[in-house]
Structure formats: C-alpha cells, structure tokens
Amino acid sequence: MTTPTANHPQEPIRVVIVDDHPVVRSGMHTLLAASPCIEVVGESSNGDEVLTMVENTSPDVVLTDLRLGPGGDGVDVTKAVRGAHPDVAVLIITTFDHDADIVRAVEAGAAGYLLKDALPDEIVAAIRAAAQGETVLSAEQSQRVIDTLRVGGRPPSERELDVLRLVADGRSNDEIAKALFISRATVKTHLGHLFDKLDVDSRTGAVATARRLGLID
Amino acid sequence: MTTPTANHPQEPIRVVIVDDHPVVRSGMHTLLAASPCIEVVGESSNGDEVLTMVENTSPDVVLTDLRLGPGGDGVDVTKAVRGAHPDVAVLIITTFDHDADIVRAVEAGAAGYLLKDALPDEIVAAIRAAAQGETVLSAEQSQRVIDTLRVGGRPPSERELDVLRLVADGRSNDEIAKALFISRATVKTHLGHLFDKLDVDSRTGAVATARRLGLID
DNA sequence: CCGAGCATCAACCTTTCGGCCGATAGGCCC
DNA sequence: GGGCCTATCGGCCGAAAGGTTGATGCTCGG
C-alpha cells in the first residue's frame, strides 16, 4: 500500500547506503538503481562519515547495516542521523532477525528493518514506506521485538550480563568469581536473578535464551 | 591445473554465481563485471539448478554461498559440480569464518573460501587463483580448518551431537534422556565422551567449544 | 526521606552434574 | 575371531550448581 496518490517520478527518493561489506553495498546500489523512484546519492562503509554525508547529500532515507565494522553500529548511525536530522528516515538492514540491537535501533528512531535476504521488491517497498514516514516491521519481526521488550521489562543488568557472557564461555562459577573479582556467592546471586529474568532454571538454559534474544553473542 | 603459462585477456574467466540473497548476487555480479578478466556467465539463487547451469555455460569457476536456502548448501553444490566436472573450480563464500561446513566443503573439493566482507580485489584475486587450480585459504582461515580437523581426528558421533544440541538448548540430562528415549546414564556417557573429544569439563564449556568449531548452530 | 533496584556477601540445603567403576550389545575392519 | 568404536544402561560418590533466606551499602527518583 504505497498510496500512490501523488507520484513524483521527477522527485526520486534520495537514499544513502551504509554497509561495511563492499559486495552488499554494490548489490544494494545496483538493485536500487533499477528503481526509477529511487536515487542513491551516497555510499559509506562505516558509521563515522554518515553524518557528513547526510548533510552533503540531503537524503530522504539512510539505509544502514546493523553491524558495521569498528566505529559504531547501525544503532549509533540511527541516533546520530535522527538526532541531527529528524526528517531523515533510517532503515536498518541486518542478516539475522534475532538481534536484540534491532530493538535498540527502533527505540533510537529507526523506521524499521530489513533482512538481507529480502527480495528487491520488498526493499524498494520498505524504502518508499520509510520515506513517507511509515514504520516497516513484518509480523514475525514485530513479534520478536515484542518478545524482547517483554524481557525488556526486566532487562538484565550490565553486571549480570558480565556473568552471563562468562557462563556462555563455559566458565564455572568459581572461575567467573575470580575473573570478576567477586565471591562465588555474588556470582550465584547474579545467576539467580538472570534465571528469574530469563525465565529459565539452569545456566545452559540462560545462555540459550539470552542467545535467542540476542543479549549475548 | 590449467597450466596458465599464457595469459589470455581475450579469454576472461567464466564465473557462475550462486547465492540465495538477491542483494549479494547483484553486488557480486556488479563487482566482478568491473574486472575485465572476469565474465559472469550465470546466476543462481539455489543449489538445485547449478549443475544444469554449469553444463549450459561451461564456467571456469563456480562462486557459491555456503548457506543457501532449502534445497542444498554450498557443500552439496561443491560435491555436485566437482563430481560431474572436476575441471570446474568451486569457491565458497560465507559470512562467518567459524563454520565447520567449510571443512566439509574443502574436503568435497572446494578450492577455498571467501568471507563476504572481503574486498573486491581479494575476491577477484581468489577467483583468478581458483581458475588456475590453486587453493585459496588465508592464514587465519587455514588455522581454523586445522583446529577443526584436530577435533576431526575424534569427531563427535551423530548421537553425541544429538545430545549436545539439546544441551545447547538448555535442557537438563533428564530432559535430554526423555527427549531421546534413552536413560540418564546414557546421556551422561555421551556427554562424558563429548567432554573428552572437545577437551572441556562442563556442559557449558562443551557448548561454547562446539559453537566455536561450528559443530552446532 | 524512603522505597526500589543494584551489587556485594554468607550460610544452609537439595538437586544436578561429572568422574569413575562397571556391564551388554551391535557393527566394522583386518 | 579379536579388536575398536558406538550405543545403551547401572551405581556410587564428590563436586558443582541451584534455591532459599537474610544481610549490608550504594544510588536514584518521587
């Protein structure tokens, strides 16, 4: 439903592409170039130069990978762009639909996100929707966001995640205690709280659930 | 062994691209088209039609994603192509360098593999090397293959992996026993053998190591 | 100021896990 | 046939993990 009440072929949607993979950048560029209603006005391989590029090219939509190399991810790009230019829509591209950062990106003002294996038509449709200020989230994707937000009601604390990451690495409580300079008792307390928040009852279960929600890895 | 004693710019390397992501396919095509020494003679979104395409287009190199959609992965493509046309080199593209299937692909006759975030020059260089019958494995990549082969000396049995997958899912030994219709004791035996093979001493450690080696997930 | 949440620790108890000792049975290879 | 590996099972035991209760000090917001 692109509500084509006012088509402006003479005013294509201006798009900036941000992705650290040359292959993806090139492919996205080629695919979008095939759409007359879209004009790619910039490409960036990292998040640092995006703001400058936005100011130089005045895009309608910034299409950014969620995972970039060093120097910021898609969430940072979203915050920076939306903070300085609230009229520019940000669309997230990601390889996985199980990534907790997607929630952070949406909270930071992203219009939605796309999977990298999306069909060209879907990508174009999403860009058009985003350019019109609409939000783009598929049913399955929305469900995941809701799932994560459910846990978001009781998000594990940073310290608890420290413990969880070491658990996921296969360390014992004793090793974790030494690594974090705390006592075994504290490790157990953190783990107990994690079990409550993640609704599990074992360390392996906590790792599995946290990984599913994208809290670790 | 195409004995490249003579360079033939008038005979570009014929390449077939196999990837289930339209974006990647398009990007790879565009990048390779920029190289005069390479000609893309075919594109496929899945592994099923590759053999027909190879027979129709007679490529020198098949560039295939490791993970394709339903209907076979890069390993299957490698086996099929190398089995029917041993003179056609197969190059694997993958997103992650920690994927046990890479080893299987190399064993199946792949000339090597590339990461999706490789630079265009690296990709072209790898294709040229593969077309000349060379093997393409970076130092880091080779190390991983060796690491995995080290475990390959004592590969976990299929049944042990069944147990391991459930452990990674957070199940207890009791739950695993019920799920696999075996007794707790057997689950413990399998796990003990896994600990030996993976050189760990806990279930979480086994999951961490197996994940690192690409044995699960 | 006081409650809520967090991080830290301790003692106690139950359950699970992991290590070690066995055993039986089937398949495969030399 | 005799190893070798795998899959299956049992019991025993110490160690680790998990559950419960309770405590202290900190920060933050109403």
TrEMBL record, chains A, B:
The modification 4-aspartylphosphate is found at D65. One of its GO terms (molecular function) is DNA binding. The keyword Ubl conjugation does not apply. PANTHER family: TRANSCRIPTIONAL REGULATORY PROTEIN NARL-RELATED, TWO-COMPONENT RESPONSE REGULATOR. Keywords: DNA-binding, Phosphoprotein, Transcription, Transcription regulation. CDD domains: LuxR_C_like (cd06170), REC_NarL-like (cd17535). This is LuxR family transcriptional regulator. It comes from the Bacteria.
